[in-house]
Design goal:
The complex is a heterotrimer of chains A (213), B (368) and C (183). Chain A is an alpha/beta fold and 213 residues long. Chain A contains nine helices and five strands. Chain A has one domain: Rossmann fold. In chain A, helix 5 links the parallel strand 3 and strand 4. The N and C termini of chain A lie far apart (45 Å). Chain C has two domains: 125 residues, NADH:ubiquinone oxidoreductase Nqo5 subunit (Beta Polymerase, domain 2), CATH 3.30.460.80; 44 residues, no CATH class. Chain C is built from six helices and five strands. Classes of the chains: A alpha/beta (213), B alpha+beta (368), C alpha+beta (183). At the B-C interface, helix 1, helix 8, strand 6, strand 7 and strand 8 of B face strand 3 of C.
Chain lengths: 213, 368, 183
C-alpha cells in the first residue's frame, strides 16, 4: 500500500518523453554520512547544532509572506524552535520562497541563493511552487520551482496556515538530523543543467561566467 | 561647498525595511537623500489578462490576491461594480454583514501596520503584541468564511453565508478585548518621546498640492483635508451608521499615525452599532445560473475605502459571460511612485523605511 | 445639469448622467487635453482618479477613459475617447497631472500606445520582454506560458485528482470520499 502511493510523484516513461527538458539530475537528497566512525559522530553533533538554530532570510517573494509575521510572533511562536530572521544572505541558512516567483524576482533569488553559504536549505511554500497554482496560464510566473533551484521541503496550501509552516520546519529538522538536507554541493555539481533551464526564461542574462562562491 | 560625492544605493528587493517586494534606487550625499526612483515589477502576475480568460464567477478566486494584506475591499469593489452594471438589488442584512466584514478587515490591517511602523523605527515589542492580537480577528474570520486570509465572501447579490451560531457573542468579546489593548499601544508608542521626535516634521506632504498629486486615504486626512469614500459616496450600510472621520493637520508621519490610531476606535464603534441593529431577512439575492451568467453590456466605476485609501474598479462588459476589461486602481498607485519621488529628497537614509510604512505602499496592488 | 450644458456650449460634445455621482462624456482625441484643463481650472475637478484603456479588436480601436473627481461638489466625470489601433498615438497629459506619467508608461508597455513627449524609462514592469505588448487581445498567454516555462507533468487537464490516481494505480476510492467526487 505505501509503496504504491510513493510512485505517484515520479513521472512515467511517456511523461519524460513528453516533457520539455531533460529530467536527469535532480537534487533531492544528498547523503553526506561518511564511512569512518569519527566523521559520522562529528557530523551528527554538527547537524544537531544546525537544526536548532535556523536563520531565515528576510525576503518576502510573494503572497505567502503575510503568514510569516503571524508565525514568528506570540501565538504560533516559531522562535522556540530556534528560528529567527536574518538580514543578509551571508548570515542566513534557510531561504523561504513564499509563493509564486515572477521572472524578474527569480533572477534576484538565484543571485541570493548563490551568495548564501553552505549548508543552505530551501523551503518552498504554497501550491504555486509545485505546479503553478492558480496562475497556471500567466506569462510572467514560473510553474515548477525545482527546475531552477534545488528544494528540500514543500509546504502545500494557499496559503499554508502557521501550523503547517511549523510542521514544514520540523520536517526540515528531521532531514537535517538524518544528513539528507542541504543541496549546495549538488547545485554546484549540476550547475550546467540548472543554468540551461534558467537561461531559457531569463532574457537579460548578465551574470559573470564563472561565479566563484 | 561640500566635498562629498553622490553615491547610488539600491534599497533592493531583499531588505528587511521595505513593505513588500520593490526596489528604490537612492542617490545619497553623505547621509541625505538627493533623489529617489522606484522600480517595480517583481510581483507582476498579469491579473487582468487572467480575469479576461475566466468567466464572471471564476474570477472570484483570483480577485482577493490583488492586495495581500487586505483582500476584502477589492471583492467589495468588484461586487459593487457588477451590481451597478446589472442593476441587482442587495438585501439589507447583506449590507450590514458587508459593513462588519469591511471594518474587521480594516482593524486587522491596522494592527499589522502598527508592527511595520514601529519596527522600522526600532521598537520591536509593539509588533509582537499587535500581530498576536490580530490572530483573534482572524479567528472570527475563520468561523465566518472558512479561511484566515483570503475569504472570497462578498459576491454580487449579497454575501455567501449567514452568521453562524455564537458568532455575535464572540465578536462582542473580541471588541471589548481590543479596546482595552488600545490603551497599552498608546502608552507604548504615542507617549514615547523617541517616536514623537522621529516622526514630527518628517515626510511632509503639502496641503495645497495633496489632491493634485493623487494622495488618498489616511495620508490625505493627515494633511487636514477631510475626504472619505464612506461619507462622499456611501456604499453598504454606512449611510445608516453614525461615525466620525478623524483629520489632523501637519502632513507628516506623526499626523498620519494619529489618524490611523483614531480610525481603529471608530471601527470598533461601527461594528458594535452594526451588530446591534442587524436586520433579519435573506443574505443573498441568488444568481439564477452561475456558470452561464451573463452581464449586460456597459461600463461601471465603483470605489470603496480601504486602509490605504480608495480602491476603485473599472469594469467593462460586452454582454458575454466573460469580463471584457477589469482594471483595478490600487490605492497606493500614486503614493508608491510619484508622491514618494517628491517626498524623499532631503530626508535621512534612516527615515526612508519609516516614510514608506507611513504612506502605506503595497507593491502587489500597484503592479497587479 | 448645467455642467453638461456648459461643456456643450464650449466644446460641442454630448454628455449624459449615469447615476447620482457620475457623468459620462465622449470627445474626439484632439480635444481631450483642452477639456481636461478646462475642467481642472474652471470647474474644480482637480483630482485625477484613474485612466484606463480597453482594446476593441473587432472595431480596431483603443478606447481611453479618463476619470476625474471634484472634491467640493463630490462628482465624477468620465471622459471617453477613441484612437486608431493600427497606429496608436495619444497626447501626453503629464504636465497637467504628475501621476499620469505612471499610467502612460504602463499603457506604452502593455498596449503599445505611443505618447510623444513622455520622459520615462521604457521598461516599467516587464524585464527583457521582446514579444508583442501583452495586454492586447491577440496575445495568447496560455500558449506562451506552456512554451516557455517548464511544467510539472501529471496535471495536464482538469480531471479529478482522485480519479487520476485511481487510473494510475488501480486503487479504489474509499466510501467516505465518494460523495465529494464531481458527479
Amino acid at each position: 500500500m505505501s509503496n504504491k502511493i510513493n510512485t505517484i510523484g515520479i513521472p512515467t516513461e511517456e511523461e519524460i518523453k513528453k516533457a520539455q527538458i531533460d529530467f536527469s539530475p535532480r537534487c533531492t537528497s544528498a547523503g553526506r554520512v561518511n564511512d569512518k566512525e569519527t566523521q559520522k559522530m562529528v557530523e551528527y553533533i554538527l547537524n544537531f547544532a544546525r537544526k536548532h538554530s535556523l536563520f531565515v532570510l528576510a525576503y518576502g517573494t510573494g503572497c505567502g509572506a503575510i503568514e510569516i509575521p503571524a508565525t514568528m510572533t506570540s501565538r504560533y511562536d516559531a522562535e522556540r524552535f530556534g528560528i529567527r530572521g536574518a538580514a543578509t544572505p551571508r548570515q542566513a541558512d534557510v531561504l523561504l520562497i513564499t509563493g509564486y516567483l515572477s521572472t524578474k524576482t527569480l533572477k534576484r533569488v538565484i543571485r541570493v541563493y548563490e551568495q548564501m553559504q553552505d549548508p543552505k536549505y530551501v523551503i518552498a511554500f504554497g501550491s504555486c511552487t509545485i505546479n503553478g497554482g492558480m496562475y497556471f496560464d500567466s506569462y510572467n510566473t514560473i510553474k515548477a520551482l525545482d527546475r531552477y533551484l534545488p528544494v528540500d521541503v514543500y509546504i502545500a496550501g494557499c496559503m499554508p496556515r502557521p501550523e503547517s509552516v511549523i510542521k514544514g520546519f520540523i520536517k526540515l529538522q528531521e532531514l537535517i538530523k538524518d544528513g539528507n538536507a542541504g543541496n549546495g554541493e549538488c547545485y554546484r555539481d549540476n550547475l550546467d543543467w540548472y543554468r540551461t533551464n534558467q537561461q531559457k526564461i531569463i532574457k537579460n542574462w548578465d551574470f559573470p561566467d564563472k561565479y566563484n562562491w | 561647498m561640500t566635498r562629498e560625492k553622490e553615491t547610488t544605493l539600491y534599497l533592493g528587493p531583499q531588505h528587511p525595511g521595505i513593505t513588500g517586494n520593490m526596489m528604490i534606487k537612492l542617490k545619497v550625499r553623505g547621509d541625505i537623500v538627493v533623489s529617489a526612483e522606484t522600480h517595480l515589477g517583481y510581483l507582476h502576475r498579469a491579473f487582468e489578462k487572467l480575469i479576461e480568460r475566466r468567466n464572471w464567477l471564476q474570477s472570484f478566486t483570483i480577485l482577493c490576491r490583488f492586495c495581500v494584506p487586505e483582500p476584502d475591499p477589492i471583492e467589495l469593489s468588484y461586487a459593487l461594480a457588477v451590481e451597478k452594471l446589472e442593476g441587482r438589488v442587495v438585501p439589507e442584512r447583506a449590507k450590514y454583514i458587508r459593513t462588519i466584514v469591511s471594518e474587521l478587515a480594516r482593524i486587522q490591517s491596522f494592527l499589522l501596520w502598527y508592527g511595520g511602523q514601529s519596527g522600522s523605527g526600532g521598537l520591536y515589542t509593539l509588533g509582537q503584541w499587535s500581530v498576536g492580537d490580530r490572530n483573534y480577528i482572524l479567528d472570527l474570520f475563520e468561523d465566518l468564511t472558512g479561511a484566515r486570509i483570503y475569504h472570497m465572501f462578498m459576491w454580487p447579490g449579497g454575501v455567501r453565508r449567514d452568521l453562524p451560531e455564537g458568532w455575535m457573542d464572540k465578536a462582542y468579546k473580541t471588541m471589548d478585548y481590543l479596546e482595552k489593548r488600545l490603551d497599552d499601544y498608546n502608552k507604548l508608542l504615542f507617549d514615547n518621546a523617541i517616536f514623537q521626535k522621529r516622526s514630527q516634521g518628517v515626510g511632509i506632504i503639502p496641503k495645497d498640492k495633496a489632491l493634485e498629486w493623487g494622495v488618498v486615504g489616511p495620508p490625505l486626512r493627515g494633511t487636514g483635508i477631510k475626504h472619505d469614500v464612506r461619507i462622499d459616496e456611501p456604499y453598504a450600510a454606512y449611510d445608516k451608521i453614525d461615525f466620525e472621520v478623524p483629520t489632523y493637520e501637519g502632513g507628516d508621519v506623526w499626523a498620519r499615525s494619529l489618524v490611523r490610531r483614531d480610525e481603529i476606535v471608530q471601527s470598533i464603534s461601527i461594528i458594535r452599532q452594526a451588530l446591534d441593529n442587524l436586520p433579519g431577512g435573506s443574505y443573498y439575492n441568488r444568481i439564477p445560473n452561475p456558470m452561464k451568467w451573463t452581464v449586460p453590456a456597459g461600463n461601471a466605476w465603483a470605489k470603496t475605502e480601504s486602509v490605504r485609501g480608495e480602491i476603485g474598479f473599472y469594469l467593462v462588459s460586452d454582454g458575454s459571460n466573460k469580463p471584457r476589461r477589469a482594471h483595478l486602481r490600487g490605492a497606493a498607485y500614486a503614493h508608491g511612485i510619484s508622491v514618494l519621488e517628491k517626498v524623499l529628497p532631503g530626508e535621512n537614509i534612516a527615515d526612508v523605511s519609516f516614510i514608506l510604512n507611513s504612506l502605506g505602499v503595497c507593491p502587489p496592488e500597484i503592479e497587479r | 445639469m448645467d455642467l453638461i450644458n456648459n461643456l456643450k456650449e464650449v466644446f460641442e460634445i454630448e454628455g449624459k448622467i449615469k447615476n447620482d455621482f457620475q457623468i459620462e462624456v465622449e470627445a474626439k482625441k484632439e480635444l481631450v487635453s483642452s477639456i481636461l484643463l478646462y475642467l481642472k481650472n474652471q470647474h474644480g475637478f482637480i483630482h485625477l482618479n484613474h485612466m484606463s484603456c480597453v482594446d476593441w479588436i473587432e472595431d480596431e480601436i483603443f478606447e481611453l477613459v479618463y476619470i476625474v473627481w471634484n472634491p467640493n461638489i463630490r462628482k465624477t466625470v468620465m471622459l471617453h475617447t477613441k484612437i486608431d489601433r493600427n497606429n496608436p498615438e495619444m497626447e501626453n497629459i503629464d504636465t497637467i497631472w504628475d501621476q499620469a506619467n505612471t499610467y502612460e508608461r504602463e499603457f506604452r508597455e502593455m498596449f503599445g500606445i505611443e505618447f510623444p513627449g513622455l520622459v520615462a524609462e521604457r521598461e516599467f514592469i516587464l524585464e527583457g520582454w521582446t514579444e508583442m505588448p501583452p495586454m492586447r487581445r491577440d496575445f495568447d498567454t496560455k500558449k506562451y506560458a506552456e512554451e516557455t516555462f517548464a511544467t510539472r507533468p501529471g496535471r495536464e487537464n482538469a480531471e479529478d485528482v482522485r480519479e487520476t490516481i485511481v487510473k494510475r494505480t488501480g486503487e479504489e476510492i474509499p466510501d467516505f470520499a465518494k460523495k465529494y467526487s464531481r458527479d
